[in-house]
């Protein structure tokens, strides 16, 4: 039996192998997914731009070769789009990000709610756009309070770097801003704070790592706070 079958993508983003009305095949069906993690790094005024990143997240069902048994491939994250824009007003940042989201389906969205990004939470609520505010903090942990997430910048950067190193995360070979994104990632280095703590900073003096921060936010959205699917089944013939 071939393990290479054309996948069916449903409207909700789930991926399934065709059953061809075979009850045995349907009984062994495992659902994967294809969705987009979208993140916004909110810039300041002047030369600090806002940046967006889109990561395609996939787990694909396949036949293992043992009868009708199915399994899912490991999580694969592919950075497929990044862009920056110098926008002085919060409403303009929201309009820009919403215009991007409207071109996608099966997306999840988060934004940097630290500093300049704090007022955006209410604006997204008014626009009826589901959004996860992420507040970047010191330390090395993250917490959730309702829809709001507090996560250390160290954890954000280290998580994204680990995913790139172990192959979970890839950058699309034809991404127009690929070289710039890689340059920003390589610019990240440890800096000592006034309190004597080490923190990861990107961009270097006079530069920014806005694309990289957006990339880290989108990666974290999938690796740490992605929705989980729960399945319920019954055991037959168990003694």
UniProtKB/TrEMBL annotation:
It comes from the Bacteria. It comes from Rhodovulum bhavnagarense. This is Terminase family protein.
């Amino acid at each position: 039996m071939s393990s290479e079958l054309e996948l069916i993508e449903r409207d909700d983003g789930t991926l399934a192998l065709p059953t061809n009305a075979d009850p045995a095949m349907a009984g062994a069906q495992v659902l994967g997914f294809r969705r987009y993690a979208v993140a916004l790094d909110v810039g300041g005024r002047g030369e600090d731009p806002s940046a967006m990143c889109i990561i395609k997240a996939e787990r694909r069902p396949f036949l293992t070769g043992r009868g009708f048994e199915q399994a899912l491939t490991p999580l694969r994250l592919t950075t497929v789009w990044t862009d920056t824009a110098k926008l002085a007003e919060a409403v303009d940042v929201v309009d820009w990000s919403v215009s991007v989201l409207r071109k996608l389906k099966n997306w999840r969205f988060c934004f940097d709610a630290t500093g300049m990004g704090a007022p955006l939470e209410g604006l997204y609520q008014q626009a009826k756009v589901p959004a996860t505010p992420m507040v970047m903090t010191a330390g090395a942990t993250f917490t959730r309070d309702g829809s709001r997430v507090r996560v250390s910048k160290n954890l954000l950067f280290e998580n994204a770097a680990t995913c790139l190193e172990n192959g979970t995360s890839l950058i699309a070979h034809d991404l127009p801003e690929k070289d710039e994104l890689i340059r920003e990632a390589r610019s990240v280095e440890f800096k000592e704070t006034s309190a004597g703590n080490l923190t990861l900073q990107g961009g270097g003096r006079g530069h920014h790592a806005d694309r990289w921060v957006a990339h880290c936010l989108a990666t974290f959205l999938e690796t740490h706070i992605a929705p989980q699917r729960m399945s319920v089944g019954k055991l037959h013939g168990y003694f």
